[in-house]
Design goal:
Length: 316
């Protein structure tokens, strides 16, 4: 069995964009062969057998199906008023220019305005973090050096009230001199820093990256093996580098359980930028909205529970 781009290209006679080909080569075996009825590693995306089978089905039933179109996933259903029926909607990749589309089973096509790498970036990070951590993961940056510690203090108060169960919460401060300083939630031994902890695998990596004033040599080499387990991509590190300017801070959190109403109460108006989470894209957007909110009573409730969900019906 071949879960790779060659299988798709040979079967369909199309050339795949390099970013999708690399993705399917790396993660193809983790994807579901039937993402319509199964939860896939990346929500809705299918493996090469799904891609080939469904693309061939669209080609055989729709005369106007794009020659370079490749069905790579399932997006849900939409209701057609004229026939009063729900029909399936699929995710299509243009093999020529890597643009993404939604296409329904009747052949209507809607552009998503993104390339595959743009569209898949959050979904892949979410899947990787869910593999790595049992708890929900958050990384939030603040434009003041003391703000992350203040927010962590509020979360610790929530923990004392049994409204949240924190596994770990690490503050990173970039001082006026540009140096990075880590404030751990728990005492950390040298072995713990280089092991599988949140500090060791994620926060520690900031100290060994050129964009953040890297420390080079044996320490960086020793750390690279641990970082490989998480496989965070370069764009994420670049984003942290661009946000963590002198006199700023960031909070990295692992949350086992959370009361959505309580977390909303404490996070509203804290003023920060969500860098990365293991939440769905919709949940992450809602979290950022509440962090930005100025008032305490004009926002909808927020659900931060991480859960397994099926494909989200497209908004059409």
């Amino acid at each position: 069995m071949h879960h790779d781009g060659n299988h798709i290209m040979e079967s369909l006679g199309v050339k795949l964009p390099e970013d999708y080909r690399s993705f399917i080569q790396t993660y193809g075996q983790k994807l579901a062969e039937d993402p319509i009825n199964q939860i896939s590693w990346v929500q809705g995306l299918g493996n090469s057998f799904f891609v080939v089978g469904n693309t061939e089905a669209f080609r055989s039933t729709l005369q106007n199906f794009p020659k370079e179109g490749v069905i790579i996933g399932y997006a849900g259903t939409k209701h057609i008023r004229e026939i009063n029926e729900d029909i399936d909607v699929f995710v299509m990749l243009d093999g020529h220019d890597a643009h993404m589309y939604l296409v329904d089973s009747l052949g209507a096509i809607q552009g998503l305005g993104q390339s595959f790498s743009e569209w898949a970036s959050h979904r892949v990070k979410e899947a990787i973090l869910k593999d790595k951590y049992k708890s929900a993961f958050f990384a939030i940056a603040f434009d003041h050096s003391d703000r992350a510690a203040e927010v962590r203090g509020d979360l610790l108060q929530l923990q004392r009230e049994h409204s949240i169960d924190l596994e770990d919460a690490v503050v990173v401060v970039r001082e006026a001199t540009g140096k990075l300083k880590v404030k751990h939630l728990h005492p950390v031994s040298t072995k713990g820093v280089w092991g599988g902890s949140l500090t060791g695998l994620l926060v520690g990596s900031l100290f060994f990256h050129p964009l953040l004033g890297a420390v080079v040599g044996a320490a960086a080499e020793a750390f690279s093996a641990a970082l490989a387990d998480l496989t965070l991509d370069e764009p994420f590190v670049r984003e942290i580098a661009s946000v963590l300017e002198p006199n700023t801070s960031a909070l990295f959190i692992l949350v086992k359980q959370v009361n959505g109403d309580k977390i909303r109460e404490y996070m509203e108006g804290t003023g920060g930028k969500v860098l990365m989470t293991s939440l769905t894209e919709e949940q992450e957007t809602a979290l950022q909205k509440h962090i930005n909110a100025g008032g305490k009573h004009d926002s909808e409730p927020i659900d931060l529970e991480r859960r397994a969900v099926g494909p989200t019906p497209p908004k059409v």
